[in-house]
Amino acid sequence: MVDALDESGNRRRALGLIGLGAAGIATAPAWAQALVNLGLPGGNDARPVAGGFPGKGSMILQRSRAPLLETPMDALDGNVFTPNDRFFVRWHYSDIPTAVDVRSFRLNVGGAVRKRLSVSLADLLAMPRVEIAAINQCSGNSRGQFFPRVPGGQWGNGAIGNAKWVGVSLRHLLDLAGVAPGAMAVRVGGLDKPPPGAAPFEKSLLLDHARDGEVMVAFQMNTAQLPMLNGFPLRLIVPGWYSTYWVKALDRIEVLDAPDTGYWMDKAYKIPDTPGANVPPGAKDFPTVPINRMIPRSFFTNMADGAKVVAHSPFYLRGLAMGGTSPVTRVELSMGQGRSWHATPLGPDHGRYSFRLWEATVPAQSPGDYTLAVRCTNAAGQTQVLQPSWNPGGFMRNAIERITVTAA
Ligand SMILES: Nc1nc2c(c(=O)[nH]1)N[C@H]1C(S)=C(S)[C@@H](COP(=O)(O)O)O[C@H]1N2
Ligand SMILES: [Mo]
């Protein structure tokens, strides 16, 4: 349990990050260990696997400034909770915090409130705590799989992670400040700085959502303080919602009495207002809404497309599933191009917002190629689609994952 926060270790390692300068991905940096192939349609899918980022082990390097680091499948395999040092990283702006003075740091609460607050980390650590297991998934996770391809970070499936978060509920902080009558929304921002002329990365939630008791200001991630690159010392946790709302290095909370018209709510992260955020490829003029709740997904983690298995011998498959905002009710495996599905046993339930492990032993097969598919369904009846959805932002992919394995 975190009882004090200390940035000194992070500070030393963070300096190494500044030293990276403008190293790009055009040439693999010297510290890259190997290339990984993300299997994206249409190519351009080899990425270096790199270590050397503060608080991080080996990660798939999508971009070094601002850092976009993807979690390799091996770090998700068998881990319902993603290790902090393998948890993916995404920042929009390159001017990110590399050290935080934990004594002078303040979280400010203002706007339409009766009493402004300036909360120190010591104050926050003394407040009542809440804990929740929740998946942090980038809105554009798996964007690289979109076809036709779309611009943006060309993620494979690893812009996702699950952690046990501990912190103080946003409701508690709002109650301390006293929300003024007529308030509508709560906007949050962090220590990263936009370039001149650009809007600060700020996101907002409607007031009732912000006060639901689950949305929290977290200072602990899987029993440790947050890694600097995942938002040390504080970040917002919005269980069930895409991580664009999970503002990192959170230093301000502002209660709004009018809708948020800032760039990052009004223009960016908008999805088609259609089921599954699906529009025909190339579509441009359609009504949009801000991206919001996640939907079910499931992944193979111990085998990838092209894996070899021994013929005439059963083989073991496992992976992770998520329900979005409702609990996982079933995960099913198909070997017949989706004609028949078989429910798989599930691992322990850590709550509706967490990953859930699934596993299966596939009976012995004669030599040949076999295509396997995995599908998750949640308690609200939402499931995954066979035919991938498309939208120009590359958001909300939840197509059924398939791998082909060869028995020989
Ligand atoms: N302050 C700040 N918070 C942020 C962002 C950002 O650019 N700045 N990016 C958001 C997006 S789009 C994602 S996907 C998640 C990534 O969280 P992680 O880096 O901890 O995995 O952070 C979110 N919070
Ligand atoms: Mo994201």
DSSP strand (E) fraction?
Answer: 25-35%
Helix content: under 10%
**Biggest sheet: strands side by side, in what order?**
1-2-3-4-5
List the bound ligands: ligand MTE, molybdenum atom
Low-confidence stretches: 9-28
Would you report the number of β strands? Answer: 25
Roughly how many Å is the radius of gyration? 21 Å
Number of helices: 6
Q: What would the principal axes of the Cα set say about the shape?
A: globular
Mean pLDDT: 93
Could you characterize the architecture of this molecule?
With about 400 residues, this protein is mostly beta strands. It has six helices and 25 strands. A five-stranded antiparallel sheet has the order 1-2-3-4-5, with no helix packed on it. Strands 7-6-15-10-11 form a five-stranded mixed sheet. Strands 8, 9, 12, 13 and 14 form a five-stranded antiparallel sheet that branches. Strand 21 (about 330-335) and strand 22 (about 340-345) form a beta hairpin. The N and C termini lie far apart (about 50 Å). Mean pLDDT is about 95; it is low at about 10-30. Bound molecules: ligand MTE and molybdenum atom. The ligand Nc1nc2c(c(=O)[nH]1)N[C@H]1C(S)=C(S)[C@@H](COP(=O)(O)O)O[C@H]1N2 binds next to strand 5.
